[in-house]
Amino acid sequence: MSSFDTLCKNIEEMDPDKFAQLFNEKSVAVISKLSSLTADGKDGVSIYMEFILASVSADGKLSPNEYLLLKPVFDRMAEKDTSYEDGVAIFNAMGLNKPGAYQKVVDLMADIFGMVDEDLKDDIILICLLVCGIDGEITEDEKKWIKQLIEPLQLEIDPMEYINGFLDKA
């Protein structure tokens, strides 16, 4: 089993409270940093949502668990209290239920990653990996998506080592 597969297994087996705490902590930090990159600050949330929705779309489905994790973000995007059906509608309207729909997000990430520090890059990858694991399983399609994010980045720090460090603390 590769270190990446071991990491995925650790996330799949993570205590739900620790999972939520890590996800929320990293999300707040990432949204704040992305918002500081945009003129109006609001686009930071939109960029964050694209990363998250692309991670969910790696398997083409928005599960109820994925929706519950993302509900506050859906509510903020829609500027109302959303239902699971609303979340699915947003997901489908963005075309994320179609295979390969996340390619534009990979391109966006390459642009964004050119403007941010290594820690933010690693945090975004960690969040994407956590989203993929919210169902308690990281599918082969989701693993492929994460690997696709990591490959072109040529990060100075091995993202798997960075992520493992956070999981060890959790």
Shape field: globular
Assembly state of the chains shown:
single chain
In total, the number of strands is 0
Q: How far from one another are the termini?
A: 22 Å
Q: What integer value in Å does the Rg equal?
A: 15 Å
What keywords describe this structure?
single chain; 170 residues; mainly alpha; 0% strand
Task: Write the topology of this structure.
Blueprint: H1 3-12, H2 16-37, H3 43-57, H4 64-78, H5 84-93, H6 103-113, H7 118-133, H8 140-150, H9 159-169
Helix pairs in contact: 1-9, 2-3, 2-7, 3-4, 3-6, 3-7, 4-5, 7-8
Write up what this structure looks like.
The chain has helices at residues 3-12, 16-37, 43-57, 64-78, 84-93, 103-113, 118-133, 140-150, 159-169. The protein has 170 residues and is mostly helical. It has one domain (3-169). The model has no long low-confidence stretch (mean pLDDT 80).
Structure summarized in a few sentences:
With 170 residues, this protein is mainly α. It has helices spanning 3-12, 16-37, 43-57, 64-78, 84-93, 103-113, 118-133, 140-150, 159-169.
